[in-house]
Amino acid sequence: MTRFPVDYRAGIAKVRAREQAVCREPAPSDHNCSGKERIMANARSKGMAGHESSRRRHQYDADNFGRKEKPCSKCKIVKSIREFGVNRASRGGFRPSCNDCRNADQRAEYARLDSKERLHRSRANAARVKKGRELKGYASRRDAYYRTTYGITEAQVDQMLAAQGARCALCGTDNPRHQRGVFVVDHCHETGRVRGLLCQLCNIALGKLGDTPAAIQRALDYVTGKLEFGL
């Protein structure tokens, strides 16, 4: 059985030294560098980031490579680079067809399926999503949404709702006035701190006022008659 050396840090240091030592920008006639090192050096000279995630690479390529648009392989229309999905295997890092053409192809493929195949596909997708949530430790779809969006759990939202008496924290109504029948999580857009649960109308009203104390106080002064502009 192969055993790692006791001082594995020395081996790691040697590997890092070899990666950083040679061939930052080798010339084609430089025989001291291997082909792989020459390709990697050329990639580094162009600013390519191999460890960027898909979304970050999408932004990185669009901003730093100067490639703002490209033609679609299906509709032949030159579109913005943001209209193409990311594909690391393709040349340039983007899919050859635009998102509109890709969505149209997927809808056409789905239309060709019969009811049995559609049911099988929907169940398979639901099972895959559920398995992904379980692997990440999410209790449900709501729990995954609250954790990824606000950094709180579904149990904490339920506790907050119970502390508010199952009512809006602002107007006090027991009607969420939401199409899904749930109260909306209100948070500060600057700090991300969760403040409470509001009905849909109160949450929209805060957003229209800019979510600033000055605008809210001015609206209160206007309603109470401290600010009068009428005849």
Explain this structure.
It is a single chain. Helix content is 49%, strand content 10%. It is mainly alpha-helical and 231 residues long. Among the domains are: 11-46, no CATH class; 152-224, His-Me finger endonucleases (His-Me finger endonuclease fold, 3-Layer(aba) Sandwich). It is extended, with a radius of gyration of 28 Å.
How far apart lie the N and C ends? 93 Å
The CATH superfamily title of the domain at 152-224: His-Me finger endonucleases
CA gyration radius, whole angstroms: 28 Å
- CATH class category label of the domain at 152-224: Alpha Beta
Q: Encode the helix/strand succession as letters.
A: HHHEEEEHHHHEEHH
Q: Give the biggest sheet.
A: 2 strands, antiparallel
Helix content: 40-55%
What is the fold named in CATH at topology level of the domain at 152-224?
His-Me finger endonuclease fold
- Give the number of helices: 9
3D shape: extended
Strand content: 5-15%
The CATH architecture of the domain at 152-224 is 3-Layer(aba) Sandwich
Mean pLDDT: 75
Q: Return residue spans where pLDDT drops below 50 for at least 5 consecutive residues.
A: 1-8, 22-31, 44-54, 60-65
**Class per helix and strand makeup:** mainly alpha
Total strands: the figure is 6
